[in-house]
Amino acid sequence: AQTVTQSQPEMSVQEAETVTLSCTYDTSESDYYLFWYKQPPSRQMILVIRQEAYKQQNATENRFSVNFQKAAKSFSLKISDSQLGDAAMYFCAYSRTNSGNTPLVFGKGTRLSVIA
Amino acid sequence: DTGVSQDPRHKITKRGQNVTFRCDPISEHNRLYWYRQTLGQGPEFLTYFQNEAQLEKSRLLSDRFSAERPKGSFSTLEIQRTEQGDSAMYLCASSPQTGGNEQFFGPGTRLTVL
């Protein structure tokens, strides 16, 4: 079974600084998706960034970028120029790619605080 | 707003009662997922549908849980004979059948079993 591990229950960052959230995963599949989802205090989950395992280039979305190390099964999220609105729970998630879109396997999350 | 909606947002019930939650997905999405999230944990998969067909059920989905999507649009999740351990946030998400697997989540239904 696939598992996702987030080893940092809580992180904090100064406004305008950079922070990196860690994630490792375990799978025997060669092709899959990895995601970072954000869950603000209102609790509606939104997608931050997605990485397809067969793509070697790291995904970027504005201030958000990932460091995808397939051999090491590592998938970290870097948030640059942190803003107060970035404060939230961040979940790393995995999904397989066969048979269309499939359920997500989530890590336990990292709570990010942004200090003004 | 055409996002995923869930009803009710909060439900308080007594142990042993039955409860039913509803999820309305984004209209053009034919896949619908249910997850359960307890405090301090990530969401855990319960079950998912393609149109009206239930494709997979997690081992977390005991016999007391049943989910339906009768016309391939909205879905219901029923919990019979609720237990205190059922207290959690129940999240619904939807996606197209293929294409990158971005899932769009609803606001959740928070269940408290007394």
What does this structure look like?
The complex is a heterodimer of chains A (116) and B (114). With 116 residues, chain A is an all-beta fold. Helix content of chain A is 0%, strand content 52%. Chain A is built from no helices and twelve strands. Chain A has strands at 3-5, 10-14, 19-21, 24-26, 32-39, 46-52, 60-61, 64-69, 74-79, 88-96, 105-106, 110-115. In chain A, strands 2, 5, 6, 10, 11 and 12 form a six-stranded mixed β-sheet that branches. A four-stranded antiparallel β-sheet of chain A has the order 3-9-8-7, with no helix packed on it. In chain A, a hairpin with an 8-residue loop joins strand 10 and strand 11. Chain B has 114 residues and is mainly β. In chain B, the strands form two sheets. In chain B, strands 2, 4, 5, 6, 9, 10 and 11 form a seven-stranded mixed β-sheet that branches. In chain B, strands 1-3-8-7 form a four-stranded antiparallel β-sheet, with no helix packed on it. The chains are: A mainly beta (116), B mainly beta (114). The A-B interface holds A 4, 6, 33, 35, 42-47, 50, 52, 91, 93, 95, 97, 100-109 and B 31, 33, 35, 40-45, 48, 50, 56, 89, 91, 93, 95-103, 105-108.
pLDDT < 50 runs, ≥5 residues of chain A:
none
Termini separation of chain A comes to 41 Å
> Given the structure, what is the number of helices of chain A?
0
Helix content of chain A: under 10%
Number of strands of chain A: 12
Rg for CA atoms of chain A = 14 Å
Mean pLDDT of chain B: 94
Give the largest interface. A-B, 26 and 28 residues
Strand content of chain A: over 45%
Instruction: Write down the overall mean pLDDT of chain A.
Output: 94
Identify the quaternary structure here. heterodimer
Give the number of helices of chain B: 0
Order of helices and strands of chain B: EEEEEEEEEEE
- Pattern of helices and strands of chain A: EEEEEEEEEEEE
Structural class of chain B: mainly beta
- How many strand units of chain B? 11
Decide which structural class fits the backbone of chain A.
mainly beta
Shape of chain B: globular
Biggest pleated-sheet summary of chain A: 6 strands, mixed
